[in-house]
UniProtKB/TrEMBL annotation:
Lineage: Eukaryota, Viridiplantae, Streptophyta, Embryophyta, Tracheophyta
GO (cellular component) term, any one: nucleus
SUPFAM superfamilies linked to this entry: lambda repressor-like DNA-binding domains (SSF47413)
Keyword Transcription: yes
Protein name: HTH cro/C1-type domain-containing protein
UniProt-recorded Gene Ontology molecular function terms: DNA binding; transcription coactivator activity
Organism: Brassica campestris (Field mustard)
Localization (cell): Nucleus, Nucleolus
Cited PANTHER family: ENDOTHELIAL DIFFERENTIATION-RELATED FACTOR 1 MULTIPROTEIN BRIDGING FACTOR 1 (PTHR10245), MULTIPROTEIN-BRIDGING FACTOR 1B (PTHR10245:SF117)
Amino acid sequence: MAGVGPMTQDWEPVVIRKRAPNAAAKRDEKTVNAARRSGADIESVRKYERVPTELKKAIMQARGEKKLTQSQLAQLINEKPQVIQEYESGKAIPNQQILSKLERALAAKLRGKK
């Protein structure tokens, strides 16, 4: 049927786009830097709840009395050494389960010491 009648398209163009970035991709360092360069508003939220100074000192003191290293204490309570390090440096967000494990392992009261 070549050459018979005018030639027309009878389909619609299809546009394929990338999906919108998910929450994790929006926090990606590369994405944040690109947003800064373009002048977009960047919202940053900090976690405010941290280990109190009294608790940090109590953990370090009790661990010192038991003559345990951070990694030995972590092994006793089945946690990573980084967890103990974060608690003693004050960077951890307090977790009641971990605190109770620490109290048992160190045989010391860490909560409600006022």
